[in-house]
Amino acid sequence: EVQLLESGGGLVQPGGSLRLSCAASGFTFSNYIMSWVRQAPGKGLEWVSSISGSGGTTYYADSVKGRFTVSRDNSKNTLSLQMNSLRADDTAVYYCAKLSSGGWYFGLDVWGQGTTVTVSS
Amino acid sequence: DIHMTQSPSSLSASVGDRVTITCRASQRISDYLNWYQQRPGKAPKLLIYAASSLQSGVPSRFSGSGSGTDFTLTISSLQPEDFATYYCQQSYTTSYTFGQGTRLEIK
């Protein structure tokens, strides 16, 4: 069964850092582009970042560029999101998601259950 | 960035109704448009990709159409499990953007 399991969320003070992880199973992890998508409380979905299968290409939303870093360890089937200089508006449920076999274009076909990040003093 | 606008923002309907949700892109995106369903407290689920292709395992009462800037998601006969929030998402650029969502409620 194809599965994604996020971890690492929690409560952090403004200006602090947090590292999220996503453990993948049931598919050849290195063959797929992966993304992070977040959802603030009561709000809609916001794409955060994507990374190619090799890890050599990354993209970020303007709202997190320069503060967040996406990476992957294909030997451990793990996706990560290092979040620095956190702000209150980064408070959200963070989902990792797998791009479909069509590459960058055909949607996010598998999602994790999400991990909650709360930025507050 | 490409801005995605959905209408309506919310919709009340009854079991058995036919429902259509619209998504408009701020620039042409060919058919690089995907639709998701999200039930409360759950992760989103991919329903339609490439504007009109049904994701594996999704019931055939869901359909998508459109190209360029205007797209629609249609549910032909609403079932109780379809009451949820629906999002469109453009994948024409790698800076993916989502619509604001359409909440489908029971009348």
Q: How would you explain this protein's 3D organization?
A:
The complex is a heterodimer of chains A (121) and B (107). With 121 residues, chain A is an all-beta fold. Helices cover 0% and strands 50% of the residues of chain A. Chain A has strands at residues 3-7, 10-12, 18-25, 34-39, 45-51, 58-60, 68-73, 78-83, 92-99, 108-111, 115-119. In chain A, the strands form two sheets. In chain A, strands 2, 4, 5, 6, 9, 10 and 11 form a seven-stranded mixed sheet that branches. Chain A is globular. The model of chain B has no long low-confidence stretch (mean pLDDT 97). In chain B, a hairpin with a 6-residue loop joins strand 9 (85-90) and strand 10 (97-98). In chain B, 36% of the residues are buried. With 107 residues, chain B is mainly β. Chain B is built from no helices and eleven strands. In chain B, strands 2, 4, 5, 6, 9, 10 and 11 form a seven-stranded mixed sheet that branches.
Present the secondary structure layout:
The complex is a heterodimer of chains A (121) and B (107).
Chain A: E1 3-7, E2 10-12, E3 18-25, E4 34-39, E5 45-51, E6 58-60, E7 68-73, E8 78-83, E9 92-99, E10 108-111, E11 115-119
Parallel strand pairs in A: 2-11
Antiparallel strand pairs in A: 1-3, 3-8, 4-5, 4-9, 5-6, 7-8, 9-10, 9-11
Chain B: E1 4-7, E2 10-13, E3 19-25, E4 33-38, E5 45-49, E6 53-54, E7 62-67, E8 70-75, E9 85-90, E10 97-98, E11 102-106
Parallel strand pairs in B: 2-11
Antiparallel strand pairs in B: 1-3, 3-8, 4-5, 4-9, 5-6, 7-8, 9-10, 9-11
In short:
Chain A has about 120 residues and is mainly beta. Helix content of chain A is about 0%, strand content about 50%. The interface of A and B includes residues 46, 50 and 108 of A.
